[in-house]
Amino acid sequence: MDSRRGASVLRLDVRLSLFCRQEDKMIFKNYFISFIEEMVANPDYAGYVGGRVEVWADAGPHAIEEIRFLTTKASEFRAFRERWDFMNVSKWRLNRLRRKIAKDFNDIRLVIPR
């Protein structure tokens, strides 16, 4: 009787372990980020640093998102890029990066006329 009960507990433990690993993959999925600077050709925007941050999923062949930036804070942006470029980040840190770029390094809203 003990051997049957032990086997069923072991089976349940294995199933729970597999489920937890699948949950971890969904919650703690890693993303690779890469900063790509692009030339700002318009002379009206001389001094601007522009480009995108490419976001890559773990196993994907293509970037799944681009986070655009355009800013006049060149030295502050370069220090920020050096800290974040070529990192594997969690979803939480990726959201943090998006908010930081939107708040501090996104002057696009100032350039586009309304």
Protein described:
- This protein has 4 helices and 4 strands; from the N terminus they run H-E-E-E-H-E-H-H.
- With 114 residues, the protein is of the alpha+beta class.
- It has one domain.
- About 11% of the residues have low confidence.
Throw out a few tags for this protein.
four-stranded antiparallel beta sheet; 25% strand; alpha+beta; elongated; 114 residues
Report strand order across the widest sheet.
3-2-1-4
The best one-word shape is elongated
Which spans of ≥5 residues are poorly predicted at pLDDT below 50? 12-24
Rg, alpha carbons: 22 Å
How many helical stretches? 4
Residue share in helix: 40-55%
Overall number of strands: 4
How many discrete domains?
A: 1
Strand-pairing-aware structural class: alpha+beta
Report the oligomer: single chain
| H/E topology pattern | HEEEHEHH
How far do the termini sit from each other?
77 Å
**Mean pLDDT rating:** 79
